[in-house]
Amino acid sequence: MSGRGRIVEFHRLSQIEKQTLLNIVENIVKRNKLSAVCAYGSKVAGYAKPDSDYDTLIVLEDYRNKIKYHYIEDEFNVSALLVDQDALIADANRALLGEFVIGRLLNIYEPLIGEEFLWDVETAYKKRVMLEILYEIASIHGPFITEIIFPLEYFLFEKLKKRATIYPPALYSYVKTYSGAYSSENLKASLKGFEEAAIKLEQEGLISYTNGIVRVRRKDLANKLARILSLLTYATRGIAQYAVHTYAGRVKPSVVSKEIISKISRSRDIGEVPEKLRQPKQLWKIEEGLLIVEGEDWIYQIAEALGLKKTFKLIKGDQLGEIYNISRVYILDDGINTIKLVVKKFKDIKSLKWALLGLWTFTKRFSMTPISRLYREYYAIRTLRRYGLNTPEIVSVILGDRILVTKFIDGVDLQKIICNLYEGKDGEEFVKIYGEAIGMAHKAGYTLGDTKPSNAIIFNGKLYLTDLEQASFGGDKAWDIAEFIYYSSKLTLNTQIVKKITESFLDGYLKYGDINAVINAMNHRYLAPFITLLMPQAIKAINEIIKKKVKY
User: In terms of CATH architecture, what is 15-283?
Assistant: First the structure.
């Protein structure tokens, strides 16, 4: 145990109430050695009725019964839960009792004896709660977890929602605790332990924590936490909780009847469930764009965020890119404003392209899962912009559906300009600008992974980088160079233009880029995926220009 106690800021019980409870506890405990006592529930959270019990947790050393309820009808009606100290610690650390006992310290409580001990088990429990929730998110959303901004209160409400799913009668208490006159104070008190837990997790290098905000540092968090946690499924934990409840409640039938009637009555008086408790994931944010975790109405949420009227019309435009690229233009028009968006859905079918390409090249590993490609593109758009490069504006991420929504750039792609070059028109300056952009990215240690000319858009004289799902730090610079040059030279015998394109690109690239990467791009491994698309004359022309530029 840490040896650091919490500061109790909210005292809902009077001194007379506290002393009366302690006197009752003394009669219950008898010869057992007392470790800690606290009051919790309606009397402490501020939603008690005149006939409500005083809920009390009593922690005992070497308690033979391990866990047991005591109901006292006296000056106060007291519902006392007695638990063995070691069993409570084990419930905090590994859900030994299905969290049936330790869950009472999830919300506001008032320590009467052993404040320091209660603080330690509370923070140990809340640290595990945070780890388990983060593990679940990382298992589902992979590396994108590092882009999510978690307010500290999310962990509380997510856990409360899960507990209410397992044990529905608890929902009444949660609703009453976090709505009404005392909700703000109750929330502040409940978050104290989560804040201490977050600080400890930050010290362990798993997260960063600043001003109530949690950010995950490690993309491999799921693998890391799998080694830390001994996880029970929520279903298994629920069964354990009910079993412990049954065992602890070894009381007279009249008491059981009273409790059942009370729960039925409370369920009718539950009131409106706060949004944070109903859908805690709506608390998630991202740095750029609207984060929608799940929901079929995401286009309406985006329209609202963009300030469009509810009566807007949606027109689904053309599919963009190649046949395997699941991107489509959406036009939103409310009669006053018209907004064009690119909606890109990352599907498994597209990964077949990257898998085959990886087999062909033998040298480059492509990111293939939908979530990893979504993460890479989202991260690259923002990162490359910080390096002075132009990328699309992110409008939204629909995380559950693996969708990225960006503003449509109404320009001309570089592939069209290259086609014009083969027809005798101008435009090689844009090829040079693309070379400069890739060189700048490489200088910063970043590679694009997919440098086809169709992924560069020219708008108002500026070049924008798009389709960045294979971009990453520390990637293969030579592949970026080779893919653009070979792709731009496919199916042509016009070696004059092939040389012009190659030379313009390298003139731009070598302004910032790595000359060794240009040399490495001549390796036959990078030629392999394009060999059936290139004429021998074109390959020879490319090699001549590269050797000339690098003085090879």
Answer: 2-Layer Sandwich (3.30)
